[in-house]
Specification:
single chain; 682 residues; mainly beta; Methylamine Dehydrogenase, Chain H; Immunoglobulin-like; 4 domains; five-stranded mixed sheet; five-stranded antiparallel sheet; 40% strand; PKD/Chitinase_dom; PKD_dom_sf; Ig-like_fold; Gliding motility-associated-like protein; signal
């Protein structure tokens, strides 16, 4: 039996999310994170000073292109682009801006913005778009002056998100106001100026009280679409009515009521084939008393997270925080609202802040005026196993988080990685994609052109036999229900061990008591002639696999059973193979020394028969005179004949006369015949 195993086993799952457009984050006060290496690293080269909304975009390889707070646009050199001022967003808007690439053109990007007004929200300027052309300004980009601040909606909330469409050839850009969602489709043909409008609960009234900073509360909160593009969540920080402020003239009282009355959290179905939002499901309502701001989906798509603030009305301050909570919902539950699980709560600092999934599959929580971000470390896990840690990701010195984190096209955050194994040459390798998305098709390129037509495959889980040891780059182009993305990884095919033919069985004559000494190096010297390989022996197969309990004396190994299976392992620096062979002891032919001189000198004092005693332990020996008279008999217990008689007429125990005698030895083993001959007694 032969085993082919790996000495070094690596899961070569590339840092290969759908693409790397969300590699860089800039937010808060000069705060930033670089995810391009696969690990979140705080950086301090950003120029944003924003309380809430912001957006960044990198290319598919993770190189920063530009970023914005919805009003100013900075290029990759952290310089404001030409025409990059005066966009119609607002740094106090929850989702001030989102950046969406024009399908089919890697140089054109749309910046969608939503305005806000902290004093009188009715004075906001609504939803706009501006176009950035990366071919301009020496390749660092410029805002196209003829396509700047193009109005789409005269008024909307602070909500904005985007997702790939079902055909994978465009994006939906979505905003919300009152009880309507507006979905705009962007394809290679450009932006459709007519939105798909969906009217669904709840109705969020734009309060018309003349008291400032009251109507804005209900407009705050994020909307997100999951990466699969079939669910949408909307967080409404409050849901007040104009009537509730009748007779109230004190600004602080009015604002405190606006902040403390509770908001709404709703889950919807989203159809990314037509942009329709439907099936409103209340997860939290005003009656629950919480104000909801940040929301995010887990990387595997199973869980939804919401950031909820509970506050007392106060006449001495805008709000009085009771506690903040991170709540998890299981989207696979029959009743999603009933699946709510409290992941974390505290009242250490102001709680309200964005939740945003990073390329490391962690969800980051921004909290007001903190030098760190809090983190949901394992958002794919249920309940408290999601592991929320307060202020566990430190920002750079002099950087401060506020309420917002950058938002992205949600399908950019879709998990997608190649699972493959570094392995030894000669082993057929299996490949698959680890993703939460529904895969339509995959086109594989194994980076092994010498394999001819076998170098490509369209199977979902293919296998490939590489033509030679080496390093190979594997590429998979994956089509999901939402998008098409390309991901790569690198694997190593190590040199396999070289094993020659070897004896499958060693047989050695028994020394007695069912034991013999075996030279196992006869096996190793035949099996391996390479100086770069090692050969070790083991009594158990599992020991050979784990390389423990080696046989330490292979050149003089004493068996444990008459026939026994042993194992040997041939290994090089990275690979090994396991083989088995058999050792057996045999009863070899006896050898008779036919001279007996019992004179006490220690030489031939007894009748020597080599290979008889303790080997043929059932034997019987008979000694006869020249006249055919039996004069002695013995067996394994009596020992060898010493020249005396123990049977017959001459049974005196005395030494017999010099002369020739005859023996018959009955071995009494299967398939053996008696051995007869003469012995000379002197």
């Amino acid at each position: 039996m032969k085993y082919f195993l790996y000495l070094l086993i690596f899961i070569s799952s590339a840092f290969a999310k759908a693409q790397l457009e969300s590699s860089f984050w800039y937010f808060g006060i000069n705060a930033g994170i670089d995810f391009s290496s696969g690990t979140a690293v705080a950086i301090d080269n950003g120029q944003l000073v924003t309380g809430e909304g912001c957006a960044t975009i990198s290319d598919q390889f993770g190189n920063l292109l530009f970023y914005t707070d919805g009003s100013l646009v900075y290029d990759a050199n952290h310089v404001i682009m030409p025409n990059g001022t005066g966009l119609k967003g607002n740094s106090s808007s929850t989702s001030s801006a989102i950046i969406v690439p024009l399908p089919g053109n890697p140089n054109i990007f749309y910046i969608f913005t939503v305005d806000t007004d902290d004093l009188v929200y009715r004075d906001t300027e609504g939803l706009h778009y501006s176009i950035v052309d990366m071919t301009l300004n020496g390749g660092t980009g410029d805002v196209d002056i003829s396509n700047k601040n193009i109005n789409l909606l005269p008024i909307t909330s602070e909500k904005l998100t985007a997702i790939s469409n079902a055909s994978g050839d465009g994006f939906w850009i979505i905003s919300q106001f009152e009880d309507r969602f507006f979905s705009y489709e962007l394809t290679a043909n450009g932006l459709s100026m007519t939105p798909v409008t969906s009217t669904v609960a709840p109705f969020i009234e734009l309060v018309t009280t003349p008291i400032t900073n009251v109507d804005v509360a209900a407009m705050r909160g994020y909307i997100k679409v999951n990466a699969r593009g079939n669910k949408l969540v909307a967080a409404h920080f409050s849901n007040n009515t104009t009537a509730e402020f009748t007779g109230i003239t004190d600004v602080l009282t009015a604002r405190s009521i606006a902040y403390a009355n509770g908001g709404e959290l709703y889950l919807y179905d989203f159809d990314n084939s037509n942009g329709v939002v439907s099936n409103p499901q209340p997860l939290l309502t005003r009656q629950d008393g919480g104000s909801i701001y940040g929301v995010e989906f887990s990387g595997n798509g199973q869980y939804l997270y919401a950031e909820v603030d509970y506050m007392n009305a106060s006449t001495s301050q805008v709000f009085d925080l009771i506690r903040g909570e991170i709540v998890q919902y299981d989207l696979t539950a029959v009743n999603v609202a009933n699946s709510a699980t409290l992941v974390h709560q505290d009242n250490i600092t102001p709680f309200r802040g964005a939740l945003q999934l990073g390329l490391d599959n962690k969800i980051y929580h921004s909290r007001f005026q903190q030098g760190e971000l809090s983190v949901i470390n394992n958002p794919d896990n249920a309940g408290v196993a999601a592991n929320y840690t307060f202020n566990s990701f430190p920002l750079t010195q002099n950087a401060t988080a506020w309420y917002g984190l950058p938002i992205f096209v949600q399908s950019f955050l879709l998990n997608g990685e190649i699972i493959a194994i570094d392995h030894c040459f000669g082993e057929e390798q299996d490949f698959n994609i680890n993703t939460s998305a529904s895969i339509v098709s995959i086109n594989w390129d194994f980076g092994d052109p010498n394999s001819g037509a076998n170098n490509i495959s369209s199977e979902l889980e293919p296998s490939h036999l590489f033509t030679a040891p080496g390093t190979y780059t594997i590429t998979a182009t994956v089509e999901t229900l939402n998008q098409i993305f390309t991901t790569t990884t690198t694997i190593i095919v190590f040199d396999a061990v070289m094993v020659n033919s070897f004896p499958e069985k060693l047989e050695v004559c028994e020394k007695g008591f069912d034991q013999a000494t075996f030279d196992l190096t006869l096996i190793s010297s035949a099996a391996s002639t390479s100086g770069n390989q090692m050969v070790n022996f083991y009594e158990q197969e599992e020991d050979a696999i784990l390389d423990v309990n080696r046989i330490t004396n292979p050149s003089s190994y004493i068996n444990q059973d008459r026939c026994q299976v042993l194992f040997f392992r041939v290994s090089n620096e990275n690979c090994f193979e396991i083989f088995s062979f058999e050792i057996c002891i045999e009863n070899c032919p006896i050898k008779v020394f036919n001279v007996l001189t019992p004179d006490g000198d220690g030489l031939n004092d007894t009748f020597i028969v080599s290979g008889l005693y303790n080997i043929y332990d059932k034997h019987k020996m008979h000694i006869f005179s020249r006249y055919g008279q039996k004069i002695w008999e013995g067996n394994n217990e009596t020992g060898s004949w010493n020249g005396t008689s123990n049977t017959g007429l001459f049974s005196t125990g005395s030494r017999l006369p010099t002369g020739t005698y005859f023996y018959v030895i009955e071995l009494n083993e299967p398939n053996t015949k008696p051995v007869a001959g003469y012995v000379y007694l002197q």
